[in-house]
């Protein structure tokens, strides 16, 4: 039996046809490099339109880089970024924020299902500033969270509002922003919520490797290309990072395919024989499963991933099929 | 008249068909991430075969990152890398080596047409070590050089030999290694010449953004994936960085298309009415042209780039056509 | 009533007479700079003698720098250092390890009174290495701990032994090593215990600002002066950082005055009306005291410091007098 | 014959009596740490008074750190600092600016005797900004220069004025600012000249290791203590870095002893049998001397230092005696 990776992550899927077709379409003729080309401009226009903002947009190949690079533009090395204790930047990026930020720190806070608890934020913001601690300069929120939970606009605005009162900047890790949007998070309100920078995830949404850095605070764009080059994030043939966005955005595939992924997760949740540990508000289902059971599941060929909080995670993507959900549900019943 | 960018750089061309087809072919089914997939393994195998080595291979989207990341693995922050004074890492990468290397220094040396002069290297290696200078820990050579000149195997081996006597490591910036190979540089001798790390350029050769980091000294591979992740250079959907290499290497297109680019440069050189300033040993032609003449050329629609040494540079690529060379030659005659 | 800072920290005391006299004595004539002088050599000799090792010794003005600089020599930027969750490097050095180490991470472990629990270390060492986490390359122990607790030689050797089995290096934060030595920690066994680098604290022991970096693994000394210079830690008039050590070590004042500080802490503990929260094994007494009580104490002029674990900390030093302990004990009784 | 180091550098001298006496005087009682103490405040007051400014003042032990730390506050990692090609930060600080600045670059300019030529600055400022070069964000001037030459107020104001027109900040490396002041450079005009940060050298002036960072732009002081701590530059017993300044400034010794050093250099110059290569405007004499002659001089016991530009350098200090100048002049005549 062939191993099945379908649900290991949403980055194990390939690229959606719309992305690949746009890539091929972009492969015509000569074009200037480093983001000054027509493809990059068109992709940026589509993003500005989608978000209803007058932002500067850049594309990089790695979500880790997109986060770390933009956070380093918001906080100095001797300052810190506030994030959830299970945020990707804190647990899964091998210390990249500290590298891009020359030792910039993270202040990690608790909260259910990856959402920062407002009280925890209030306490962190009330901390006395001292010379021997890294005081916060930015707040990073992830929507949807690492546990698939959705922040509402109101919740986000309240957290950012509290942070801005103390002079902090706000960053959105939107690796799964498409899933958040499909879940009702209003993209056209990002600026109003107070974000200074938003990362829009392409990769997990179904692109070849590409993430958009949206500089809502356009003053951050000054010398940002040099910042990218300095950090090894400015590719010469930039059109290939931008092109998939044209394919994903022109016809709305970025959102509709995320809606599909979310629907697949709901379907899986509906048939899940194990206790579900986090709200199924996007494309992941996190369950309570002991190790012997997980081993039995794996022996049936189904790969799955034990996550930060010890839950077992099943991720759906644009490429998840009804058949796969059925088959997995069958296997889960069998080992449950 | 439409502006023509054909000769501005070899990164203004699109991707060769072989690269794009392989990318599409890699877009099947689910695959593990971060380089552990079958596509990445196959591409690495092809590179090992081409170089006849037992090396570890990684793929990144940016040549600047490939250089800086690997140099940071060879020299400590308080040490330096020796390179040519016009090396890309010294002049065109916005200080990336210093960033990836936490302040790692560069010691820049002279030499004709981008080739380090052996005497200059000898003097640099003979410098007394002090606490207030960054002593060299690695030598970086670029082949072909920024001026299109080719180092011979003998010349490379002599420079590396001198460096290794002082304990230095050796790095190859092979952004245009395909052009060097097409010019006679023996790829299967890289290990014998003493390189510890070689960067194989994909982008300028005709790939979508991708560069191969070849760790000839496999001890460098320990935790290298974490090093990449830490530096924002490990993408989840790694297969899309590896796939083009399968297309370019399986049928030899990486080399044959570089040979085409080199031939186009020779053809252009043969018809060049301006003094040629560097040996035409690969895909570039560097000429002496004053500013008014360059302006006239530009007014005819031909974009060109005044380079580090004030020469005007015309670069050919896999996509350069006979027609374009003819047309440019015509225009040059007209303004000359 | 004048505020009394005596017990706020052991760094609020001045320098012991022996240190200052040696400083004055070193102020004769001309001397080469950057550590190549006779004063630096003599101080290093005394330290080698005290520790019975053939180590390389350097002096810096800051304990934070001593720790961060030496840890950066033990772990790469994409690696991590294991330490106690309340270690000074984790809680009180403003992210310096991450700065000196270019994003080098910390893995923080629990354990009573600042001593890493062996089981916690075992678990950390057993963690699977992945590309998205910073795997450990060094273990940092603090003796005495931030809570004044003493590691025994056996306990240290066991922790380091476990770490070395996994290839880690070992670092000693000895900001209060004098107090540990006075408490019975055998200085001449540091090498046998497996430390690669030990920081010997001068400042808290009663020096003007000076900490000794003892490179027990002498291979670390290669280009270490350049590493110091690069990191702004190599002063030209190095003799003034070394001289106090001559005064403190020649007559044994470094140890005997630490023994005095320890004795003062025991005396204070004996009269302490509040619950003592950590073993009094060196020069600090940590007690359970609510905020109103602490405020009353402060209103009597006694400054005190609420510590990481919320205990109130009273630190003794070489300069603590019997009278001061009596007076503080009186005040504590009054507010208790 | 004992080797004589008198003229090797101005950092081979000990500390002037005023500095050491103030250090001893500061050694009374307990004091808060990290710069919040009465000694630090008093020293800062004296500096503000001397410069007639409302600046924030910090003290560090190393001039390299003082420069690099403050430059990192003026330029981002992907930006550069403009300085003279023989500036200490460019040639003698082991890449510290690149370390403190996370890869921050230097743009080095020519000019006689260490003074940046206005035309060279104009050209550098006129450079087109690109993504692949580090564009300048600050100008660093050294007064007196590494060759002992003095910038006039007019010359400084003109250079800074040009830089400020392009939005750059201005930094003064004043390692020998006392000598500049003694030569007529008006300290009370630093703010008017446009400096944002000035480093006032204590060490070479005759202090134990201490340099003052004067933040003329007080907005830079925000979280500067954390910046210092993060970079290993905030010592707990800060009073010992501040105290010497009280001794040196209260009675004017910082200036009068620098005037003595300058006078000794003039005296040496008057008797110099070798061609003098740079204007003797402060405390150094730079001469043209071939290697055999230098060797003969050394064989007479006189140490001397061949400098960046291949001149042989003789430095005077507060401790240089008439007798020493006579004796050296005698020796020079003998070998000349």
Model description:
The structure is a homotetramer of 336-residue chains. Chain A has 336 residues and is α/β, with parallel strands linked by helices. Helices cover 40% and strands 15% of the residues of chain A. Chain A is built from 14 helices and ten strands. Chain A has helices at 17-25, 38-51, 63-72, 88-91, 96-100, 118-126, 153-165, 177-182, 190-193, 224-230, 239-250, 253-270, 291-299, 322-335; strands at 56-60, 79-84, 105-109, 135-142, 169-174, 197-201, 211-215, 284-287, 305-306, 312-315. The first copy, chain A, has a seven-stranded mixed beta sheet with strand order 1-7-6-5-4-2-3, with helices on both faces. In chain A, helix 1 (17-25) crosses helix 11 (239-250), helix 2 (38-51) crosses helix 11 and helix 6 packs parallel to helix 7 (153-165). The longest helix of chain A has 18 residues, at 253-270. The model of chain A has no long low-confidence stretch (mean pLDDT 97). Chains in contact: A-B, A-C, A-D, B-C, B-D, C-D. At the C-D interface, helix 1, helix 3, helix 5 and helix 10 of C face helix 1, helix 3, helix 5 and helix 10 of D.
């Amino acid at each position: 039996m062939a191993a099945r990776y379908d649900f290991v992550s949403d980055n194990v899927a390939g690229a959606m046809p719309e992305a690949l077709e746009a890539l091929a379409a972009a492969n015509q003729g000569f074009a200037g490099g480093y983001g000054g080309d027509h493809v990059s401009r068109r992709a940026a226009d589509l993003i500005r339109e989608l978000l209803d903002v007058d932002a500067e947009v850049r594309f990089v190949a790695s979500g880790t880089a997109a986060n770390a690079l933009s956070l380093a533009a918001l906080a100095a090395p001797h300052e810190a970024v506030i994030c959830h204790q299970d945020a990707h930047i804190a647990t899964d990026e091998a210390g990249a924020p500290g590298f891009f930020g020359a030792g910039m720190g993270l202040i990690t806070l608790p909260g259910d299902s990856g959402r920062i608890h407002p009280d925890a934020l209030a306490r962190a913001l009330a901390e006395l500033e001292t010379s021997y601690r890294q005081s916060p300069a930015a707040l990073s929120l992830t929507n949807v969270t690492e546990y698939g939970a959705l922040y509402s606009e109101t919740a986000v605005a309240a957290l950012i509002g509290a942070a801005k009162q103390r002079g902090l900047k706000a960053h959105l890790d939107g690796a799964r922003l498409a899933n958040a949007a499909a879940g009702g998070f209003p993209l056209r309100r990002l600026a109003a919520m107070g974000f200074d920078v938003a990362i829009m995830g392409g990769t997990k949404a179904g692109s070849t490797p590409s993430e958009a850095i949206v500089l809502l605070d356009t003053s951050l764009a000054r010398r940002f290309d040099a910042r990218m080059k300095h950090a090894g994030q400015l590719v010469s043939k930039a059109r290939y990072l931008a092109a998939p966005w044209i394919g994903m955005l022109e016809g709305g595939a970025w959102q509709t395919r995320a809606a599909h992924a979310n629907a697949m997760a709901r379907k899986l949740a509906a048939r899940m024989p194990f206790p579900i540990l986090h709200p199924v508000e996007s494309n992941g289902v996190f369950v309570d499963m002991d190790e012997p059971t997980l081993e039995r599941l794996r022996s049936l060929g189904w790969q799955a991933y034990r996550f930060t909080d010890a839950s077992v995670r099943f991720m759906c993507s644009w490429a998840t099929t009804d058949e796969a959900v059925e088959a997995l549900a069958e296997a889960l019943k069998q080992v449950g």
